[in-house]
Amino acid sequence: MAVNSRKRARYSEVHSPELTLSQGSVDDETLDCSEWSCDGVVSFLQKHGHADVAEKFRDEEIDGELLPDVQLPTLHNMGIRSGKSLKILQLLRRFRRDAPLEHSYKIFNDPIHGHIELDPLCVQIIDTPQFQRLRYIKQLGGCYFVFPGASHNRFEHSLGVCFLAGRLVGTLHKRQPELGITEQDILCVKIAGLCHDLGHGPFSHMFDSMFIPRIRPDRNWRHEDASVQMFEHLIECNHVDFKKYGLNDLDLEFIKEQIAGPRPTTNPDDWPYKGRDKSKAFLYEIVANKRNGIDVDKWVVVLCTFAGTYNCWFRITEALIKANDYLFVPGKDGQKVKMSDAIEDMEAYTKLTDYVFHQILLSDNENLQEAKEILQKIERRELYRCVAECQVYDRTFSEKDRVRVAEQIVNTAVPVDDDNQEVELVPDDVVVDFVKFDYGMGKKDPIESVRFYMKNHPDRAVNVRKEQVSQMLPREFAELHIRVYSRKRDKSSCDAVFSRFEKWCKDRGCSVPKGGDIDPELTPYKTPVKLRSESHSSLLSAATAGTSIQHAKKSLFSSTENRGK
Prior knowledge:
Shape: globular
Largest sheet: 3 strands, antiparallel
Distance between the termini: 85 Å
Radius of gyration: 30 Å
Number of strands: 11
CATH class of the domain at 389-522: Alpha Beta
Structural class: mainly alpha
Strand content: 5-15%
Strand order of the largest sheet: 7-11-8
């Protein structure tokens, strides 16, 4: 019988050509089921004690040619769940044609996505020291010191991105065969999702957004570039043969481009990629979407922002900076490499994880004493005091302005009658942090770069204008906040910092710092205390007397209207 390639794609994320299958005998010892008919598959399942599942395979018309490509999502779509689906998958593994003996398909029990199955090449990449180091790097950096549940690591995050990337490109392949998505395309997208965060350092974004910029301000370093370098290092050290899995040098380039992003071009109309041409441009928007920021990486990430979080980030960063000249990591050819220089040596960078926190904490090196005391204070929760936060309408502030703003705040004159005027402060007493909030594309509205499909025209993508959705959508899509901390924890010092920061904000037209006084005309109307008391008493009386609460509310509303008249 003829099997349509689109039908075959329902059971596999790889593209198989149309074939004509014949009736075959059931001999599972040969590990070749290509000649089995649908009845042969049913007979095989019944023989191994799965008669209840066999009929579902018959209903889906799964024959021997389709059998090796059945995957976990296929079984779930057929209504076969939980432990049963895993037993069936284990039984069918013997028919997998593309799995080398040393690395077969493996199932991971993901806390978010449940049981997920990953390809043999992905498994081979996972089983390397370069990938395993992600187990020891917190996904949310210092958030774990504030939110006890924020304990997940880059390892499980990367597995999730790999899985979702495969699901997305697999769905496109199944529903839109005209796109010409190949087996190699799907595998490359999965690998890019798996390896996109290989270049993260200790405590993730704390390392690349705070530590490196402060200790090496001349170095424009991105963790995406380090991910590509680590990916190349992983391949070289572990002798991963991509050709064995049907991938060539152009596919490797495609994987790296998905991780690092487009290369700079002199002409904006030039195609910035080499791995795939413009007809496959959509594949570059699955793992790291440069068009609108909506990608599978963002779907997996849960971003936590809290004053206490940044507080811990500051302290850990300070400790690493103070320890940098005295803490070394073994690098290439046995050379000792500083943390700040490990980004140039992937052998050393492989050994650089969150473990540096305890290396410093447990060290008896006198040169690390100052850094050690900082980390001890974190464990004792002796953190900087978060004094206030305001919104800045001038978004030109950058990391290099932190010290300058701290000096301005300390030198700001406060009114003579201010009780904190006599408190002496120096710029080093104040820590300033710039916090940017946006929708993933800076000042731009990401939805302007999103295309939507209409039900009556499923083949035509259109833009949706804001006014077509609502008149209440935001006009701005980015904010810059300034958070100010006091290194001194006593109340008088914190009050003095707040007074100066409040005046600094007022002089520059910023929003009123949280905790500050708001001008009377901006104060929203509140129900007078007397009326609130009457409201509470009326509802309480209605409840005790058995009167309808709604009737009591109606009476109270009427009396309030009469008062207004």
